[in-house]
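Hi W.,

Here's what went into the run:
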Amino acid sequence: MAGKGILYGLGTGPGDPELVTRKAWRLIEEASVIAYPSAEGGDSFARSIIAEAIAPDVIEIEMPVPMVSGRAPAQAIYDEGASAIRSHLEDGRDVVVLCEGDPLFYGSFMYLLARLRDDFETQIIPGVTSMTACAAAHNHALVARSDVLTVLPGTLDDDALTARIHDTDAVVIMKIGRHLGRLRDLLMRLGLAEQALYVSHASLPHEKALPLSQAPDQAPYFSMILLYKGNDPWI
Amino acid sequence: MAGKGILYGLGTGPGDPELVTRKAWRLIEEASVIAYPSAEGGDSFARSIIAEAIAPDVIEIEMPVPMVSGRAPAQAIYDEGASAIRSHLEDGRDVVVLCEGDPLFYGSFMYLLARLRDDFETQIIPGVTSMTACAAAHNHALVARSDVLTVLPGTLDDDALTARIHDTDAVVIMKIGRHLGRLRDLLMRLGLAEQALYVSHASLPHEKALPLSQAPDQAPYFSMILLYKGNDPWI
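Here's what came out:
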């Protein structure tokens, strides 16, 4: 890998530009090539978080990920992105890939890593996840002492969710979006709705931190449910 | 709460001073009172991470947590610490409490929060957890797409661990310490040892990132096992 550039997978944290790590900020300021996914036809959330740190003459590789079902269209975009990144790395230029939250925690960075890590030195810069930022929004322990924590995608069906919620102490439900109503009904049936917390856009000016019972009917993409099942965790 | 100081619970991240967020660093630089737990008779890991940012004339509240079993001795130390913090807050001085990793992710900060949050404005500054720093040490996705992630304390017995490992896609085992040998044997019996990764002191100069099969027989306190059970998560 001598003479080749380094591939950085860099977590930009949950949204507040001040919740970016010092290392990530420095690497972005020093970067000559950055790459990031964006919603097709829209902005890149990851880029918006660190926009202030980007040097004026930087080369930008945007990967407009199509918001359609099925994996093939997105994978084609990552193929293209990886190919553009590859040519910079081959020429000896480092490439910093921006990822909201942490690159290895439900991040799309893995698609680029899969395509490039065998051929180039890779370094991951971990970031603050939305999960702990959501707990911070409520000033409530996410998980304590010897608790078991389970992170569940809201897309699972009710039976799968019920079994896993039964078997743990603290629960984070991600990817809730249009499933919010169903998830709230489920937690009510399980007698757990009272303890459940809702957060959207954690750490951003328009953050919402509410009891789940007061959450809106439709949840945005950047939202989460936190549930602490144990007794008061404060003692 | 007018005229009173603000209580900050501040995550210092996994160990590398550059993996502290910009916000945490700024708050420490500006702090006139900081508080932190330390191992009784030893250093404070949280303080060591941000030592460079501490102003020379800062007031420091050290809470030497006894390393003995049973909760009472530690709780007495948190009582004392909370009382010292309380008098600064009453006098209108902000207090920044340092916590390695994230304050609400298995953090001892909850003990102070429990004692103080009803009387003072509290703000949590989330930090990078050791969990994602350990995944970064291996350049390996912690969890991807619609996976279920389960975080388990290594102190659970084999049956409890087996049931939960069976029911999830990705596993983090924390608090492994003297349980490492037993945990490795268990994962071997479950046919999962090959996929398991070991990390200690993530992000520090003496970080060790090894396949679990090559891990030492005794794990230090700051160590973890990561297990990805799914198929190759890279596609």
